[in-house]
Design brief:
By secondary structure, this protein is α/β, with parallel strands linked by helices. It has a domain of about 220 residues: 2-Layer Sandwich (hypothetical protein PF0899 fold), CATH 3.30.2320. Helix content is about 20%, strand content about 25%. It is built from 6 helices and 11 strands. The chain has a 5-stranded mixed β-sheet with strand order 5-11-8-6-7. A 4-stranded mixed β-sheet has the order 1-9-10-4, covered by helices on one side. This is Phage coat protein. It comes from Cronobacter turicensis (strain DSM 18703 / CCUG 55852 / LMG 23827 / z3032). It holds the Pfam family DUF6260.
């Protein structure tokens, strides 16, 4: 490498011999906004609501069980109190859920020029962020569509399966009689919302405050005014006045005429976490080993029913056109 005459040997200089394939890569600044710019900001709505409710298990525990009981027992009334105690042996059944591993990863080749760039740390951070979101999306898919093998069949582990909110036997599957995504009949939509609320409240004796998750099409349609006579509140605001409906939120996993109802604070739905999502680096046994990171988590989902088959979660969909 040639040096210009007249420059002191102890002055600062850059010896950049064979450092990168193209010296211009050292001076580039990359805009990373586009990585997130066109992704829905509601893709983790339900996940973000459920994670504070998560329950921890040890990583070696691949299933989580809970007991179900029912019946009110009995009692009697007397003046003497000497006619014997009212004894009733409760009946219990058990259910549970599996705790599978969800993983992804990213890598850089050992001679990747990006490591000679001032933005190398940013590039790794971007890759790690994307890897975490990939695992989060995989877990969201697991929540909604269940655990399937490569052939598309539901995986059975130790007698347990999870078919997702859209198909599992632990979730009440309801057909909507009104297309909430396109209807302009406000009163019909309100009446249908009352019917849907009562599936849990009256039909399944689940009195917890309900959080509704709806598709973007439904949320958009519910922004129309409830009354044509005067511009008052919207259909969405009208539905929030119904007893028992605490919130209505948009979730990108829901499509078209599709709604999920969850009583978040009732203790009947919770992620079961053996390992929170995190990223670890693979060992590099040789000087020319690639830089590899793996992002993983161990997470299942518990959805409870009672001993009599009453539901706590409702998934509603339909193709009605009214």
């Amino acid at each position: 490498m040639g040096r210009a005459q007249g420059i002191r040997e102890d002055s600062g200089r850059l010896d950049a011999v064979n450092a990168v394939d193209d010296i211009r890569r050292l001076y580039r600044a990359f805009d990373t906004t586009v990585l997130q710019q066109f992704e829905p900001n509601t893709q983790f709505t339900l996940l973000n609501d459920l994670m504070p409710l998560s329950r921890s298990v040890r990583i070696e525990q691949s299933r989580y069980d809970y007991a179900r009981t029912g019946g009110r027992g009995w009692a009697h009334t007397s003046m003497s109190g000497q006619i014997g105690a009212a004894l009733d042996a409760r009946t219990y059944t058990f259910d549970g859920t599996m705790v599978p591993i969800h993983d992804s990863g990213f890598k850089f080749t050992w001679r990747d020029p990006i490591f000679n760039s001032p933005s190398a740390l940013q590039s790794q951070a971007d890759a790690q962020r994307g890897s975490v979101e990939d695992v989060q999306r995989k877990y969201v898919d697991y929540m909604w569509d269940g655990f399937r093998d490569a052939a598309g069949n539901y995986v059975q582990f130790d007698g347990l399966t999870w078919k997702g909110f859209r198909a599992d036997e632990r979730v009440a599957q309801v057909t909507l009689n009104v297309n909430m995504a396109t209807s302009t009949d406000r009163k019909a939509m309100r009446a249908e919302a009352i019917r849907l609320r009562d599936v849990l409240k009256l039909g399944n004796y689940q009195y917890g405050q309900q959080t509704w998750y709806a598709s973007s099409e439904i949320v958009s349609n519910w922004e129309q005014y409830y009354s044509d006579n005067f511009q008052s509140r919207t259909v969405l605001q009208e539905l929030l006045t119904l007893t028992g409906i605490a919130a209505i939120k948009e979730d990108a996993k829901l499509q078209g005429n599709e709604i999920l109802i969850v009583p978040l604070q009732a203790g009947v739905v919770a992620p079961i976490v053996g390992q929170a999502i995190g990223t670890v680096a693979d060992p590099r046994p040789f000087y020319n080993s690639d830089y590899i990171w793996r992002t993983w988590g161990a997470m299942g989902l518990m959805v409870k029913t009672d001993i009599n088959g009453h539901y706590s979660v409702v998934h509603a969909t339909g193709e009605a056109t009214s």
